[in-house]
Design brief:
The protein has helices at residues 33-46, 53-61, 65-72, 80-90, 94-98, 118-138, 160-174, 190-203, 217-230, 236-259, 307-320, 332-347, and strands spanning 2-8, 11-20, 23-26, 108-113, 142-148, 209-213, 268-273, 281-286, 289-294, 302-304, 324-326. It has 12 helices and 11 strands. A hairpin with a 2-residue loop joins strand 1 and strand 2. Strands 1, 2, 3, 4, 5, 6, 7, 8, 9, 10 and 11 form an 11-stranded mixed beta sheet that branches. Helix 2 (53-61) packs across helix 3 (65-72) and helix 7 packs across helix 10 (236-259). It folds into 2 domains: 2-108, lambda repressor-like DNA-binding domains (434 Repressor (Amino-terminal Domain), Orthogonal Bundle); 116-347, Endonuclease, Chain A, CATH 3.30.870. It is an alpha+beta fold.
Amino acid sequence: MRIFVSASGGVVFLRFLLLIDRKPFALSFSMDKDLNKILVAKIAGCIPSHVKLIDYVTDTLGITIQSAYRRIRNEIPFTFEEISKLSRALHFSVDEVIGLEHNKQALFELQGKVSFTPLETFSVMLDRYRVYLLRMYEAKEKEWITTMNHLLPLFSVGSDHLFRFFYYKWIHQISKVPINYYFSEVTVPAEIRVLYEEIGHYSQRIGNAAYIIDRNLFLNTVKELQYYYKRGLISDEEIGLIKNTLSNAVDYMEKLIREGANGLGISSLFYLSSVGIETNSTYMKYDEITESYFWIYMAAPINTHNKEVCSMHKKWLDSLKKYTVLITQSNEKLQSEFIDEQRKSIDRITYI
């Protein structure tokens, strides 16, 4: 698979060259008049019957009535950014509009825009995740499989100091900050904290989740902490608070593994991998909708609704189970060994 990145209307999207049946298929995007008609019909079919099409397009896209009419009348095409905004608002896949599935092509989206600040990208990433968790929560049928080789901000909900560290790492890495930008200088904005709390609420209430985890799950996060601690950017007191947060996270995971459910009675399955997990990824299915996430860097993943790609991803995740051992409410020896390894990793944070 070769990956190409291009931009349209300020929105970054990926063009993938997929080798299917030994034939390459390249994704290209050109919103012609036929596709414009398909999109208008899709919008009309998704909005409530009492809502006028022109009003919905105007309000959702933040454009004038005249501009909306020109799009609906097929005089000018919708931009890719506008299609993405409408698809998120009406919960349909962009693939359904531009017909990628029939052409063996897959559309992937990045979380954010080229012009976004690091704060905006982080906020968009959390908000997208909140929306999908809400859909999962409301769905009658749901399935969730995640592979994890290190902790992500999304999985630090309920651990304030750890979440703050992930936000600090994101800002430190992406923003133009001084070389000696200290952990004490960062404050999690109120809008980020609200999203964080909502994610925590819904994530604890979604069942039928399975986690395929790497043996070095916490060690990889510990190494990140050690880098900033060694540079003197995180103080002894601050590292102590984060260390306690990590310890609490291990305690919580141990409880989930041994009891099979959290305090709300929501169950989860943990599979411990015998081989290294290559990347963090998530497959979601809520009712008839499937979606796959792939983390190419720390916080913001790429995602797709393409049914074929999601099916391939699900097949790959299921195949990983051949190299794992189910440790939820089973194999106490392996449970104990795994938890002890995580605690030893955390204890070594300041031994650098």
